[in-house]
Amino acid sequence: MRFFENENTTGLVPGSLLLADPAMRDPNFRRSVILLCAHAEEAGALGVILNRPTGKTLGELYQPFEKNPLAKVPVYDGGPVDPNQLLLAAWRWDESAGTVFKLHFGITAGKMLGLMEGSEPYVCRGFLGYAGWEGGQVEGEMEEGAWLKAAISRAIEAEDGSQLWRSLVGSFGVKYRLLSNEPDNPSLN
Question: Which of 6, 44, 87, 185 has the maximum number of C-beta atoms within 10 A of its C-beta?
């Protein structure tokens, strides 16, 4: 099953997905799917890891959300930078505009509540921390083969955890499908 069309351009745009190459061993990013939220080659890039759920909700982690409509919003480990900072994000697919992905990132709880309760509700998530790169850093890492770039797809809502990474990386072809299913410890094979 193919979830996205691989783009052959080197340009990164907010809304792109960065998929950790199967050879990546850095524990901060191993088997991660990152939603790129901001990018400027000179200034750098910022994103959040989409496939590391904490198993907690805003209401469980933060007392002000306990009896709030946002209490059930899931929280994810967003990345190694500032892991105590909570970032809120919301998105939806706009079919009327040709399946456009609309992302609101770094929003307030009030803005998120409005998006959740709107006539066209958004998917809402909280992220603890983020992934960040200095100017030119992510481009260099891509040239070294650390990341695969993919267009955003609905797969980010259909699957979670390591299965999301496996599905997305595996859709690059047979080689990547085999590598994405390799066990963490090959000696257990």
Answer: 87
List all residues 6 or more positions away from 25 whose beta carbon is below 8 Å from its beta carbon.
none
Q: What is the rounded distance in angstroms from the CA atom of residue 145 to the CA atom of residue 122? A: 33
Label the pairing between strands 74-77 and 147-150: unpaired
Joined together, the tokens standing for residue 88 give 């809120």
- Number of Cβ atoms within 10 Å of the Cβ of 155: 20
The range of the structural domain enclosing residue 80 comes to: 17-178
Phi, psi dihedral angles at 35 (to 5 degrees):
-90, 115
- What is the pTM for the complete model shown? 0.87
Residue 68 lies in a domain: yes
Report how far apart, in Å, the C-alpha atoms of 75 and of each of 57, 59, 62, 125, 185 are: 5, 10, 11, 6, 28
What's the chain's length in residues?
189
Beta-carbon count within 10 A of 114 CB: 14
pLDDT digits (tens, 9 = 90+) for 69-111: 999 999 999 999 999 999 999 998 887 765 578 889 999 999 9
CATH number at residue 122: 3.40.1740.10
Q: Is residue 184's pLDDT more than 80? A: no
